Amino acid sequence: MPLPFDPIDEAARQWGLRWSGVPAMHAVTSLMRVQQLVLGRLDAILRPHGLTFARYEALVLLCFSSRGSLPLGKMGERLQVHPTSITSIVQRLEADGLVMRRPHPDDGRAVLAEVTDAGRLLVERATSDLVGVDFGLGALTDEQLGELSGLLAPVRRAAGDFE
């Protein structure tokens, strides 16, 4: 049941009685709450497919690659996750028959993850479901989505996500 007031507005009001930085506090608290809401919705949509959003992203990345395979290290870099996380994600996808791991043909130390036909098919079905609900952001127009992405880009750039 929705509250009769915005709890983030109230937290910001209380914050302002004690400390400075109310606009940043309000924005980050709102951002974190929306992240919880969206991730919860995405995971609920992907759960019937046997996926989490992290595993879905890994499969999509492999589908985007020209050969359908990438070294695990490169996957971790592109998905911006720790090497142990990508290893765990790929192991789970492999156990589900969605990815195969094999030695890198040119680098004996590296391991490639390669998407299987079953993985490609699952990506198509899961993507259709995600697009059907606007990735959980259906309350925003396309223009607002563009504005949101634009607002967040400087924060990501400053964090070193890209140049």
Can you describe this structure?
The protein has 163 residues and is mainly alpha-helical. The chain folds into two domains: 49 residues, no CATH class; 76 residues, Orthogonal Bundle (Arc Repressor Mutant, subunit A), CATH 1.10.10.10. It is built from seven helices and three strands; from the N terminus they run H-H-H-E-H-H-E-E-H-H. The chain has a three-stranded antiparallel β-sheet with strand order 1-3-2. Strand 2 and strand 3 form a beta hairpin. The radius of gyration is 19 Å and the shape is elongated.
Features:
single chain, 163 residues, mainly alpha, Arc Repressor Mutant, subunit A, 2 domains, three-stranded antiparallel β-sheet, 7 helices, 3 strands, 63% helix, 8% strand, elongated
Give the gist of this structure.
The protein has 163 residues and is mainly alpha-helical. Helix content is 63%, strand content 8%. The protein has helices at 7-18, 22-46, 53-64, 72-79, 83-95, 117-132, 142-158; strands at 69-71, 99-103, 111-115.
Report the top-level CATH class of the largest domain: Mainly Alpha
Give the count of structural domains. Answer: 2
For the largest sheet, list the strands in their spatial order.
1-3-2
Distance between the termini: 43 Å
Shape: elongated
Task: Sketch the topology as an H/E string, one letter per element.
Answer: HHHEHHEEHH
Query: In terms of quaternary structure, what is this?
Result: single chain
The averaged pLDDT comes out at 96
Largest sheet: 3 strands, antiparallel
